[in-house]
Amino acid sequence: MKVISIFNQKGGVGKSTSAGNLMAEFTKRGHAVLGVDIDPQAHLTKFLACGESDGATICELLGGEAKFIDVAQGSKYGDYIPSDRSLATRLGALADDPAFVFRLRELLAEQTDTYDYVIIDCPPAVNQLTVAALVASDYVLIPTEAEYFSMDGVCEISRTIGQVRGSKFLNPALKVLGIFFTRYRSNLTIARDMGEVMEQAAKELFGSEVLRSRIPNTCDVPESQAAKKAVAEYKPTSKAATAYSALADEVLEAIG
Ligand SMILES: Nc1ncnc2c1ncn2[C@@H]1O[C@H](COP(=O)(O)OP(=O)(O)OP(=O)(O)O)[C@@H](O)[C@H]1O
Ligand SMILES: [Mg+2]
Q1: pLDDT tens digits, one per residue of 133-148
Q2: Can you name the CATH fold of 2-255?
Q3: pLDDT per residue as tens digits for the range 69-95
Q4: φ and ψ at 210, to 5 degrees?
Q5: Residue ranges per structural domain of the chain
Q6: How many A from CA of 18 to the centre of ligand 2?
Q7: Which of 67, 164, 171, 246 has its CA 20 to 30 A from that of 6?
Q8: Atom of ligand 1 nearest to the CA of 216
Q9: pTM (2 d.p.)
């Protein structure tokens, strides 16, 4: 089982969109997939859920009040651990436990025989939840827009990842799979320029690269989400569907 966190503390860069579409792509390839929503906004949950649920969430799982089997839900794109707003209000109390950042790793370690890939959708923040995700992960995948202020986000991430990798008690083995561009507008000069800037930053900050697959900015993506479908199911011939398929191949090739 390989655990991948999709992380960027900058908001709205396509983390949840990429988590949902990668889950769909991995599932399509026959892999057993688990999505873990650790964002109180619960966008991945809302994308995957069939209806309203008042069942247990990641909150009760992390708090030790519910078992994995009772929290995990099924979806057409794989199983998932749902989140909801209560995660924001309870985080302080949960993280009061000094061992909190290890909790997710412990919980996922019990699932190694069940899943091939776990995809964690992180919130747009650096807090104990994101540290817990990075501690539980083998890999981190960084979506970013190709814009001027995107560099700020990437520098911030490198600090957090550096801290997690720098401690032998946290996760020195954490690998950065790479940065990839989302909402990419190839007609903009700044987008093309940022390609070079990010390439350099990826090398210097993470010893990794910018992935070849770029997810184009297209209304097919928000439309597919409104239809609660992965873009590959909603519009199989769209450029976004091709790009997410290529991204999945690239990621699987990199991690085996
Ligand atoms: N390739 C794309 N083309 C057009 N719109 C997109 C694309 N990817 C994502 N979006 C839209 O951008 C918005 C933000 O995407 P998403 O929720 O995936 O980002 P996020 O990084 O998870 O946000 P947050 O930081 O709030 O969790 C959504 O409305 C989504 O539909
Ligand atoms: Mg999100």
Answers
A1: 999 999 999 999 998 8
A2: Rossmann fold (3.40.50)
A3: 999 999 999 999 999 999 999 999 999
A4: -90, 125
A5: 2-255
A6: 9
A7: 67
A8: 1
A9: 0.97
